[in-house]
Design a protein that fits this description.
- The protein is α/β, with parallel strands linked by helices.
- The chain is built from 5 helices and 9 strands.
- The strands form 2 sheets. Strands 4-3-5-2-1-6-7 form a 7-stranded parallel beta sheet, with helices on both faces. It has a two-stranded antiparallel ribbon with strand order 8-9.
- Helix 1 runs parallel beside helix 2.
- The two termini are 34 Å apart.
Length: 199
């Protein structure tokens, strides 16, 4: 019998130094606000330090208008009026609500290190216009779905062409990633012969 683990979705968005900030805001708002109780909703925003001063005030405005509570590290808090201090538990949390953890990171390597520490292996997103950084991000993470400049909300069996989704497996025993009905079925072979042998 197939065994699957549809576990929590601690999904991250990393906004790279080269990101189109308009595009990044759209990814963030859709990923966090379109259906916050879904497992493919964003739970953590990581922002490259080089764009934090330009991007975070826009985050505060866009998410503030939608009632999102922000929990931020000491580098992000000054740019996010009304935010509260984030804890380690916040970065590991699947809030399933209008709550978002925020951290400013020095570079892509720091973003990858953060994700590796806190991920649930569900879905990770990078907003970047640097194809090299996009490839490094994709190759460095083992999550079931990794996206480049696309909303985490596309991490869904139906959206990925699998039909009705059964779940998103975050373990590698039997199935991994978004699963449709085929992932829970097995193949059975019936061979009818007339005395054939392999020799």
């Amino acid at each position: 019998m197939p065994v699957i683990k549809h576990y929590k979705g601690v999904c991250h968005l990393f906004v790279d130094a080269s990101a189109d900030l308009d595009k990044a805001i759209d990814l963030l708002v859709d990923g966090k606000c379109s259906r916050p109780a879904a497992c493919n909703s964003l739970e953590t925003l990581l922002v490259h330090g080089d764009v934090a001063a330009a991007f975070l005030p826009r985050v505060a405005q866009a998410l503030g208008e939608r009632g999102v509570q922000l929990r931020a590290d000491e580098r992000a808090q000054p740019q996010l009026p009304g935010s509260c201090a984030a804890t380690d538990e916040d970065y590991a949390a699947e809030f399933l609500d209008l709550v978002l953890a925020v951290r400013v990171v020095d570079d892509l390597d720091a973003a990858i290190a953060h994700i590796r520490r806190y991920t649930s292996d569900h879905t990770e997103v990078i907003a970047t216009e640097d194809s090299g950084n996009a490839e490094r991000f994709v190759n460095a993470l083992r999550s079931a779905v990794v996206m480049v400049n696309a909303s985490s909300r596309f991490s869904d069996g139906g959206q990925l062409g699998l039909g009705s989704e059964i779940g998103i497996s975050t373990t590698r025993l039997h199935a991994y990633g978004p699963m449709g009905l085929e992932a829970l079925t097995v193949e059975r072979f019936v061979v009818r012969g007339e005395g054939q042998t392999r020799k």
